[in-house]
């Protein structure tokens, strides 16, 4: 069991951050594995053929992707903590990965192989410049498969941060960290159980801990580097959206109309009008009109947080979105 033990200043200095590189890593795993999370199926079907064709042309890229998709230990040069807070830029992260010394990268790859499922080989691991080669692959994946979707994905990640920041302000870190991943939990008053797999405890010092959301719902890992704060990558709440408890949302769409049903499903996590517009690919005016109707019918309400107006489901909206048989 891996436990993160926090010193007396760690909690007060912990904060949220975004990482386009971590989002790319999670996307690579989604594209490489033979199954997909339901919410990501349309995106995966559009992009997977070109992604696999790219791997077929490059043995190094294919070997690296197969390894990180089949290991319980991600290589250290691919799990560096983001350094730019909520404004972390992909270019800065790629540059840092490219600078990782070969001996460090190779050591991490060999450890990843030791923790991988049977059959993972390293016969593709030749030559030099492993950090730069990984950075080049991630750059290609970002440009081809993620860049166009990033504004909507970023809006969803910011929604999660807003939601958890609200819980933090009202209830403290234990509530804000609730259900960040399938195995994390608060332990006592000064520790977080990060994983139920064997591993050494980590001590989080006075720099605090970074919490980094990604859209992939099965993704969770720990980032660490000498002299840097630890970063806990976790699945953002409600990243996949959804439009009701009837499985695919068709019944709710027939009742409310597809646009309003989509919005009600997305409001499992509070969001602004512009965030919803980005997530759903609709105009701000269209989304605003739907929100006005949902608010008039008592299914959603709104709250001002600083300069932002967040819409959220009411109790009635929660019950309707959950579907029949839920009380």
UniProtKB/TrEMBL annotation:
Keywords: DNA-binding, Transcription, Transcription regulation
Sample GO molecular function, one term: DNA-binding transcription factor activity
All copies of domain HTH arsR-type, residue ranges: 250-325
Protein's name in the database: Regulatory ArsR family protein
Organism in which the protein naturally occurs: Kitasatospora cineracea
Lineage per the UniProt record: Bacteria, Bacillati, Actinomycetota, Actinomycetes, Kitasatosporales
